[in-house]
Amino acid sequence: MKWHIVGGDAFPMIEMHLEAGEAIKAESGAMVTMRGGLTLKGKMDGGFGKAMARMFTGESFFLQTIEADKGPGVVHLATPVPGGMVDVEIQEGQELIVQKNGYLASTQGVDVSSKVQSITKGLFSGEGFFIVKLKGSGTAFLSSYGSIHAIDIPKGEDVLIDNGHIVAWDGHMKYDITKGASSWFSAATSGEGLGCRFHGPGRVYVQTRNPYGFGVWAFPYLPIPRQHG
């Protein structure tokens, strides 16, 4: 299986070349084009329980399975929002935790399920109580709002990351919910609010744009419905 990202940085697609017998799975609605000997099906990957759990993370109940069952073929995958894409290798015994709507696709050896966060982290991390958990062995493809940047945190060090910029992190990493500035007053007046302080060693993936911040910026420009009476 070969793949590369096309379409530029702002509006990319993944172009995947599947050989006969190979298959991938992707979020519902991710397929843009498909040709050759490929077949697309909707499946409850992992069974009913895991499919239900994925719904709580903001992902789809059914995943697309695209299989080269009639011969080799090419498929393009994309997301509804502008932003980056990145491929991440999942090793056996490793877990990758992904924000809601951050999972796009993966090879068949990657298990897509969910993880329940504590009440504190669910309320204040910005990710909700359920988050996506990837494990197994293979390649996962993540998407974001803005470009994706990987931050490697050495052992003994920590990095404070704004909640709205988090895409994914290594599952073994610990993090704390904390104020985004030196004091609560500064956190409120600087616009940073709460953040997640990740403790190394491990890798965190961040997005260069904040969807919540974009919503605040765009709100004044939205048309006001007219009153009819």
Q: Could you give a quick summary of the protein structure above?
A:
With 229 residues, the chain is mainly β. The chain has four helices and 19 strands. It has one domain: Mitochondrial biogenesis AIM24 (Double-stranded beta-helix).
CATH hierarchy, class: Alpha Beta
For the secondary structure, the number of strands is 19
Give the number of helices: 4
CATH topology: Double-stranded beta-helix
Instruction: Tell me the overall shape.
Output: globular
Oligomeric state of shown chains = single chain
Our measurement of the CA-to-CA distance between the termini, rounded to an integer number of angstroms, reads 61 Å
Strand percent estimate: over 45%
- What is the element string, with H for helices and E for strands? EEEEEHEEEEEEHEEEEEEHEEH
Low-confidence stretches: 118-125, 183-191
Q: Architecture, CATH level 2?
A: 4-Layer Sandwich
Largest sheet entry: 6 strands, antiparallel
How confident is the prediction overall: mean pLDDT? Answer: 81
Could you estimate the helical fraction of the residues in percent? 10-25%
For the biggest β-sheet, the strand order reads 5-6-3-10-13-8
CATH H level: which superfamily? Mitochondrial biogenesis AIM24
